[in-house]
Amino acid sequence: MKKLVGLSFGLLAIAALAGCGTTQAKSSDDKALNVTMVGNPATANPAISGDSNSSSIISQTQEGLYTLNENGKVVAGVAEKVVKPTKNGTVYTFKIKKAAKWANGDPVTAQDFVTSFQWQINPKSKSQVANKLKFLKNYDAVQAGKKAVSSLGVKALDKSTLQLTLSKAQPWLPDILATSEYPMKTDLFKKYGSNYGTSSTKTMSEGAYKLVGWSGTTDSWSYVKNTHYWNAKNVKINKVAVQVVKDPGTSASLFKSGKVQETTLSGQYIKQNANNKELKTTLNSSMRFLEFNDKKTVTHNTKVRQAFSYVIDRNALTKNVLQDGSAAAKSLIPYGDGDDPTTGKDFSEYVGNLLSYNPKKATQLWNQAKQELGIKSASLELLTADTDEQKHAAQYLQQQAQKYMPGLKLTIKSMPLAQQIAKGSAGNFDIDLDGWNTGWRDPSDFLQMADGTSPVNFTKWDNAHYTNLLKKIDDTSTYTTQQRWDLMKEADKYVTQQAGLVPLYQQAKAHLVSNQVGGLKYTMMTDAQYKYAYWK
C-alpha cells in the first residue's frame, strides 16, 4: 500500500513539474529552476519560524541586516556594512541601505526590524525562536510579561537607523543576524497580526525572491525574482519552482528524468547515487534526538529515558538504517559546532563519546523503572514527522525498544512536520523524535533545548542544576570565553548522563544538483541560496 501511494504521489509530482518546462524559454534567465522540498513549511513569518522547511522558505525570500555570501561568510545584507559594536560589545548601530526595498517598491525601514524583533519576543506570539534574541536588553522581563515590548533593546532611531542594545556581549550575533533574523513589513503586520505569514498574500518579501502561490497548505509554489531587491542585477535566475516531495524515490526519479535540477535524497537513494558526480553530501549543523514528556508519569522517570538511550546502536542506525551520511551522535553537540578558544580543537573531541549501546543495561534500567513506577507494562507513542528519514529511524527505535524493554508497546505516529511541531509545543506526546538545526557555531544553542526556561524545550524537563549551568553559560559579562567553554562541556555531559534529551545522530544533507546549474553551495550551517544560482 505504501509503495502504491508513493508511486501515485510521484507520478503527480512529475506531472506537475513537467508542466513547468513546457514553455519555450527565451533566455537562460527565463528558464525556471525546478527544486524540491522534503516537507511543508509551517509559516512564512520570520518572527515565529521554528522548523527547517519554514526557515528554508524564509531564507530564500527575505534578507536580514546581514546575509551569507556564496561561501557561507557573513557579509552586509540590507545594512550598509558589517558594524563593530560599541560599549563593550553591547550596542550595534546599523544604517539600512537606501536601495533596500520591499517587493512592492516600499523602502525597508528600521521600524520593520523593530516590528519583527518585538513580535518574536512578545509572549503573545508564542514564538519558538524567541530566545535567539535573548541577549537583547530587557528580554527576560518582556518574555515574562513584566515589561512592555517597547522596552526591548531594539530601537528605530530614525527611518533608516536601527540600534540594538544587548544586556551582555554576544560574540556570535553576526551569525544570528545573517541566518535567523529578518524584518516584517510593518503595515502588513498591523493589518494581519498573527495571520501574517500564513500565506504568500499575507506576507511580503524584501530578499532576492518574492514568495508566490503559497497558501500554507499547498505542495507547490514559486520564488519569483524581486525586481526591487537591492542586488537584483546579480540574481541570474528569474524563477524557482518548488515542489514538496516527501518520498526520496520520487525525488530521485524526478532528478533522473530532468524534471528537477536540485533535490534532497535520503536512505538507500544516497547509497545508490554514491558514485554520481551530481551528488553533494555535507554533514549538517543539526542533531536528531528523542524528547520525553516530563509531565507524564512513565517518561518522567530518568531510568526510562536512560534505557531508551542504551537500546540504540547509533552506528547501526546511521550506517545500516539511514544510510545517508549521517553520523552517530556522541553527545548532544554535533561535530563542527564550536572550537576551543585556546587550542582550536572541536568541542565534540573534548567531551568524547558519552553514548553507548548496551541492551543488557537498558533491560536492567527498564525493569528497575517498572518497579519504581509499580507497573508491569507500558504503552507509549513515538511522535515523528512523515519523512522517509524519520519513519525509518522510528521503526528501528520501535524494534530495539520492544526487544530489550519487556512489557513495552511502542506505537509510531507520523504526521506532517508542522503538525508534529504543534503537538510537541503543546506537550501532546509521550516521546517525540525531534531535532534542532543551529545557525551559529556555539554549543549553547543545542544545550538550551533541555533548559527548563527555554520555549523550545518541549520536554518540560526542568532540572535546577542544569538550568543554573545554562545561566552561567549565558552570563558572558561574568565568565570568560574559556570558562564558558568549560561550563558547556560540563552541561553537555550532565544532560546526556541524565537523558534530559537522548541524542541519536548528526544529520547529513545530501542533494542531487544538475551539472547544468552553478552557484549552489552547501555548508554545515546553510543550504544553498538560489540567489547565487546560474545556468551554465
UniProtKB/TrEMBL annotation:
Keywords: Signal, Transport. PROSITE patterns: PROKAR_LIPOPROTEIN. Gene3D superfamilies: Dipeptide-binding Protein, Domain 1, Dipeptide-binding Protein, Domain 3, Periplasmic binding protein-like II. SUPFAM superfamilies: Periplasmic binding protein-like II. Belongs to the bacterial solute-binding protein 5 family. The lineage of its organism: Bacteria, Bacillati, Bacillota, Bacilli, Lactobacillales. Residues 1-18 form the signal peptide. It comes from Levilactobacillus fuyuanensis. This is Peptide ABC transporter substrate-binding protein. It is found in: Cell envelope. It comes from the Bacteria. Residues 73-455 form the Solute-binding protein family domain.
